[in-house]
Amino acid sequence: MNIKVVNTSPHPLPAYQTTHAAAMDAHAFLPDGPLTLAPMERAAVPTGLFMAIPEGYELQVRSRSGLSFKHGVVAVNSPGTIDADYRGELKILIANLSNEPYEVQDGDRIAQLVVAKCERAEWQEVSELDETGRGAGGFGHTGR
Q1: Mind listing the pLDDT tens digit of every residue in the chain (144 residues)?
Q2: Rounded to the nearest 5 degrees, what angle is found at the Cα of 88, between the Cα atoms of 75 and 97?
Q3: Which of 22, 44, 116, 124 lies 20 to 30 A from 79 at CA?
Q4: pTM for this one?
Q5: What is the set of domains in the chain, with CATH numbers?
């Protein structure tokens, strides 16, 4: 699949880091210098990327596991969705959940991007639903 992209940054396009990786890493574009996130602070980090996701697909934005584990920096609404009709700059919403300030440098890999097929659904309103073994059992219903 080809995705049209305009890259206004000097950084490489998002890329898969290994042969079987499901996600591509995205880079921060901070031409005015580093961004320091205080503990519990969040920010929309620019990437310099503008893209045309094909109709019927979305771009999912996810946390990088190493960044989350080592530094407590996560994508806030993970997975975030970039819709096929959005043409603005891709900005990564991140938060620092650690107790220490975290500095994002220009070019840092800050998130993972997954291209995913998505279906359009239509609601069918009914008066009742069919029964299942689970029923209305919700959070913790299995006792584990």
Answers
A1: 999 999 999 999 999 999 999 999 999 999 999 999 999 999 999 999 999 999 999 999 999 999 999 999 999 988 999 999 999 999 999 999 999 999 999 999 999 999 999 999 999 999 999 998 887 777 777 776
A2: 15
A3: 124
A4: 0.88
A5: 4-117 (2.70.40.10)
